[in-house]
Amino acid sequence: MRVRFGFRTVEINGDGVLTVNGRRIVLRGVNRHEFDPDHGRAVSLELMRRDVELMKQHNINAVRTSHYPPHPAFLDICDELGLWVVLECDLETHGFEQPRPEPWTGNPSDDPRWRAAYLDRIQRTVERDKNHPSVIIWSLGNEAGDGDNLKAMADWIHERDPSRPVHYEADRLARYVDVYGEMYRTPAVVRRIGQGALRPGELFYPLTEGAGDPADDRRNRMPFILTEFAHAMGNGPGGLAEYMRLCEEFPRVQGGFVWEWIDQGLRSTDAQGREFFAYGGDFGEDLHDGNFICDGLMFPDRTPSPGMLEYHKVNEPVVIEPGRPGHVTIRNRYAFLDLSHLRFTHPQGELAVPPVGPGERVEVPVPDGVTIQAELAESTAWAPKGHVVAWGQLPRAAPAPAVLAEARRTARQSAEQVHLGPARFDRRTGTLVGIGDRPLHGPRLALWRAPTDNDRSWGQGDAEYWKARGLDRLLHRTVSVEAGDVGLTVVVRSSAANSGCGYLSTYRWDSDGERLRLRVHAEPVGYWPERRFSFAEEMVDHDLPEEEHEELLRRHRAPSLARIGLLWHLPEEWSRVRWFGAGPGEAYPDSRQAARIDHFHATVEDLQTPYVRPQDNGTRADVRWAEITDPAGAGIRVEGDPMFHLAARRWSDRQLAAARHQSDLVPEPLLYLYTDHAVHGVGSGAVGPGVLPRYRLEVGAADFAFILTDIS
């Protein structure tokens, strides 16, 4: 039998920092279930290796084997290719948390009759896998409450294998573990943990304020790891950058594990032979959790989701950022490697970078406005030569605002229409119906989106709030249409039936004869009630200046919108999109680190993200201009003032919200185009914190403008 082995030392130093071979490490990890969309829990050796290769390619350096020891071959691959492993014992008693009369009544974790079984499980776990150098931490299990049997497991490990620390997420007072680990704490609380400011007895599950001197609580002097964070269900997670920045700021905050690696959807076909990924409720079962198990960074077929690309970016082991004017700063975040295995490139060629050591940085001159990539100089066991490890971009000059020529055209009226420059409007409603020879219908104010899994969270209640206000069924009533020598002014009230709130929008159109400008002022009217939220943990840093702290608290509590912008109906043959802005993939306010500023092009189909359960997706951020055309290049150009968010799809948001699977989406004979002034963040509220206050879109007035040009 061939055994791969290695030598390393895992220690917690006097400052409470987890080290390997004397170096602080940061776990940029994922929680991994063994899953194959075609074979369920039966995972081949080839697929195991592919998983580790994909993790390495996306800057993931650690895996928690949730919630059981994996197939031993997986650990062999981790030893070979290099991943830190938190190896978890097969133990979970989650069901006992449900009230019986009280939570955890009868939990085996504190029942002496179960002690031998608990010890047997941890002993078999350790004895089987103790020789794997990739395993650096033992985990007692997952969500099994607390009790003396868990302490007995920890005591046995400390005696049998003192070379590795012990972790367990439900030892929330850190009485018997060596590494303090918790789930889904907010960045604001993780900051306090990093500062050593937890109060003795303070708990999140259940929420307990705590009291006393923080110095008396041993958790404040231990390494902290987020056992699970950033629940990657559907569109999201948002806020990854905020978490990973805390690892840079506080030495004892040492990363964590996103929940989870892969969507667990089973490949299926419907009655028409269309393929989709099935989840809870698709098999005739009475009890199920719907799509709650589709909560991974990878789609079931192991295609990276936008969340995976975001995690790749925030985990980059090399940080490439602007330095002095005309220079870029390159910072090495590897724990052990210098940068000699990488080459640095930009569009004009290669950048000469010295072999910067771990933790060091260097400043290098570069051309203005370029994107620099750090690529593998040679092939490795997990990626080919040229694989992009990291990238950075020097800021581009701010775009000049779109302007019209001084000459203004007078709006002319006919029996049915108003004519202004190249545009035609419905005389009764003021709706734009065409530019030049191009049919075009709109705009309508848009305030809603097909809820994401995170929008549906119980903690912030955004989707529920939007639904209760009727934002998904707005009716648009034209208040006035005024045509004259300064253009056309249209006032529209947008509100749902039987709703006491809405928006009043003023659309001011003018033209220089060739282009059409629209200036919008939209303001809320009526009564917008308070939004219910129940995620009680603090969402705002406690040490911010008082005025900033209070403002963010206000935004956290404020009524919200999904978006504020315009919806247009375009001809279905307008299937090509070019834009200058953030891309190439989707980006939202709190999940946009992976987007760079450049020129991009795509088909409308390419703009869609195929989340297992359909939901809002595909928004492109910071768009300066976009052209939506037919294959021959005829269509319209939209310029923003300021920049805008762009989305285009072949089905309405209501159809998107009603679908259970991608195969349910049926293209309509038109194109839905969104040009949004602002959009709501995505957060991670399906489990854990929702949208952080700075990324929330609150109900309020908005002013924005667009210039539209006919493209022949």
Strand content: 25-35%
* Major beta sheet summary: 16 strands, antiparallel
What is the approximate shape?
globular
Termini gap: 71 Å
Question: How would you sum up this structure in a few lines?
Answer:
The protein is of the alpha+beta class. Helices cover 14% and strands 31% of the residues.
Structural account:
The chain is of the alpha+beta class and 712 residues long. Helices cover 14% and strands 31% of the residues. It is built from 10 helices and 36 strands. The strands form 6 sheets. It has a 16-stranded antiparallel β-sheet that branches. Strands 8-7-6-5-4-11-10-9 form an 8-stranded parallel β-sheet. A hairpin with a 2-residue loop joins strand 22 and strand 23. Helix 1 runs parallel beside helix 2, helix 3 packs parallel to helix 4 (148-160) and helix 5 packs parallel to helix 6 (240-249). The longest helix is centred in the first third of the chain and has 15 residues, at 115-129. The mean pLDDT is 95.
Pick out its properties.
alpha+beta, 36 strands, 14% helix, 712 residues, globular
Break the fold down into its secondary structure elements and pairings.
Elements: E1 10-12, E2 18-20, E3 23-24, E4 27-31, H1 45-57, E5 62-64, H2 72-81, E6 84-88, H3 115-129, E7 135-139, H4 148-160, E8 166-167, E9 180-183, H5 187-194, E10 224-229, H6 240-249, E11 253-258, E12 266-269, E13 275-278, H7 306-314, E14 318-322, E15 327-332, E16 342-346, E17 349-351, E18 361-365, E19 371-376, E20 388-393, E21 412-413, E22 417-420, E23 423-426, E24 432-435, E25 438-446, H8 462-468, E26 475-484, E27 487-495, E28 501-511, E29 515-526, H9 546-557, E30 563-570, E31 576-583, E32 596-603, E33 620-629, E34 635-649, H10 653-658, E35 671-679, E36 702-711
Parallel strand pairs: 4-5, 4-11, 5-6, 6-7, 7-8, 9-10, 10-11
Antiparallel strand pairs: 1-2, 2-3, 12-13, 14-15, 15-18, 16-17, 16-19, 19-20, 21-22, 22-23, 23-24, 24-25, 25-30, 26-27, 27-28, 28-29, 29-36, 30-35, 31-32, 31-33, 33-34, 34-35, 34-36
